[in-house]
Amino acid sequence: MRVAMIGTGYVGLVSGACFADFGHVVTCVDKDASKIDRLKKGEIPIFEPGLDALVAQNVEAGRLAFTTEAKDAIASADAVFIAVGTPSRRGDGHADLSYVYAAAKEIAELMDGFTVVVTKSTVPVGTGDEVEAIIRETNPDADFAVVSNPEFLREGAAIKDFKIPDRVVVGTDSERAREVMRELYRPLFLNETPILFTSRRTSELIKYAANAFLAVKITFINEMADLCEAVGANVQEVSRGIGLDGRIGRKFLNAGPGYGGSCFPKDTLALTKTANDAGCPVRIVDTVVEVNAARKRAMADKVIKAMGGDVKGKTIGVLGLAFKPNTDDMRDAPSLDIIPALTEAGATVRAYDPESMHEAEKLLSGLDYAESAYAAIDGADAMVIITEWDQFRALDLDRVKTSLKSDIVVDLRNIYSPEDMAKRGFTYISVGRP
Ligand code: NAD
C-alpha cells in the first residue's frame, strides 16, 4: 500500500516509520521545512527511543521518504493520514481544528483515484463529517472515504505501542475503506491485536473517553495522596491495595504532581466542551480538569513549605522538566507551572533534564540550566525531582548529600524510599507517604 502521512510530529513520524516497517511505502509530509531538512539528513527532530534506527532502516530500504511537497505523495496514495496537531484553541479550550481542515482541503485538491482519508489526529466527535464535507466541496468528483483511526501510542514507548497495541480502532461505514485499513494493519492481525470497527463518531469519542478515563484515574489517586498526607496513610500501599483488584487494575495509580503532556490536558478540556455543546455535561471530567490544574500550581507551595515557608534568595536544584521520562516533550508539563511559581517566590532555580532542555528554553525563562543532575544541585538549598527519569532513580545519594547545602529533597514522583532517605539523614518529602 502507498501511504501519505500529513504531519510529521510525534504521531506522524512514528506512525509513518512503523507503517513503512510493516512493508508499506510511506511519504511523510510536513509544512515545517526545517523538520523535513533534518529528516532528509538522517536527523530525528524529536527524542523517541528507537526511532532513529527504525527511520534509518526504512529510508535505506526505500520505503520511507520525507517531503514538504504533498502533491505526488497524495496523488499516488491509497491512504492519506492526517496527523497534524489539534491543540487547545486559545480562549475557549475547544480543540483547534484549523490544521486538520487545512490538511483536508489540501488533500482534496491533490487526491487522484479512490483514496481513504484517515484522521489520526485526536479530533472531537463530528470532525470526520466536516472533513468529508470540505473534501466534497473542494473536489466534487473525488472518490474517497473518511475514516477515524485514533492513535493511542505513548511518547517514550511509541514504537512498541504502535506495533503491539492493545487495540486498533477504525471508524467508518465504508466497506471499501475497511478493506484498505485491514490491509494497512495486516501485520497486527497476525499478532491477534483486537481491531475494532465502529462508526466514525464512536471511534472519535473512544479516543477522548480513553484519555479522560486515564486522567480520572490519575486525579483520583492524587486526591487519595492528599488524603493520605492528612490522615497519616501511605498512598503507594493504597494503590497496591486497590490495584490488585482486577476491576481497578494497577496501572496509572502513581500519585504525582498532576498530569501534563501533549494529550491529557487538552483532550480532557476538549471533551468537556463537546459534552457541554451536546447538552450533556461530563461533570466528573469537568472536576478532573479543575483539580489537576490546581494541583500543578499547588506543587510549588509544597516545595516552598518543605523549605520552611520562604524561598527568597534560596537556590533549588530541579531534576526533570519533560512531562514524563523518555521524551523531550514539554507541552503542559508540570514543570511549567512549578518553576515559574518558585522563581516568582524569589528562588533561583537550576534545572537539568536529559532530553528536554532545548524545548524548555523556549518555554521557561528566568532559570539556569545545568549540564548534569549533580551540577543542578551543587550548593543548592533543596533538590526537587519533577520527572522520574531512570538516571534520577539511581543517584549516588552520598554525592547528593555532599553536593546539597541543606538536606532537603522533595520527590514529586515517589522514586525513593522515605525510610532509606531518613536513614541517610535527608529531610525527605514525597507525595502521599508519611
Ligand atoms: P506535533 O505538533 O508533534 O506534530 C504535528 C505536525 O503537523 C507538525 O510537525 C506540523 O508542522 C505539521 N503540520 C501542521 N499542519 C500541516 C499541514 N497542513 N501539512 C503538513 N504538515 C502539517 O503533534 P503530535 O504530538 O504528533 O500530535 C498530532 C495529533 O495526534 C494530535 O491530534 C494529538 O492529539 C494526537 N496524538 C498525540 C499523541 C502524542 O503522544 N503526542 C498520542 C496520541 C494522539
Main sheet specs = 6 strands, parallel
CATH topology of the largest domain: Rossmann fold
**Helical fraction:** 40-55%
Task: Give the percentage of residues in beta strands.
Answer: 5-15%
Mean pLDDT: 97
Query: Using DSSP, what is the number of strands?
Result: 14
- How many domain units? 2
Please state the structural category.
alpha/beta
- Tally of helical segments: 19
Which runs of at least 5 residues are low in confidence (pLDDT < 50)? none
| Inertia-based shape | globular
Structural Rg: 23 Å
Report the top-level CATH class of the largest domain.
Answer: Alpha Beta
Distance between the termini: 57 Å
Strand order of the largest sheet: 3-2-1-4-5-6
Helices and strands in order, then pairings?
Blueprint: E1 2-6, H1 10-21, E2 25-29, H2 33-40, H3 51-60, E3 64-67, H4 70-75, E4 79-82, H5 98-110, E5 115-119, H6 127-138, E6 144-148, H7 158-163, E7 168-171, H8 175-184, H9 186-190, E8 195-198, H10 200-231, H11 235-243, H12 264-277, H13 283-306, E9 315-319, H14 335-344, E10 348-352, H15 357-363, E11 368-369, H16 373-377, E12 382-385, H17 390-393, H18 397-403, E13 408-411, H19 418-423, E14 427-429
Parallel strand pairs: 1-2, 1-4, 2-3, 4-5, 5-6, 7-8, 9-10, 9-12, 10-11, 12-13, 13-14
The structure holds nicotinamide-adenine-dinucleotide.
The site of nicotinamide-adenine-dinucleotide (NAD) has 27 residues, from helix 1 and helix 5.
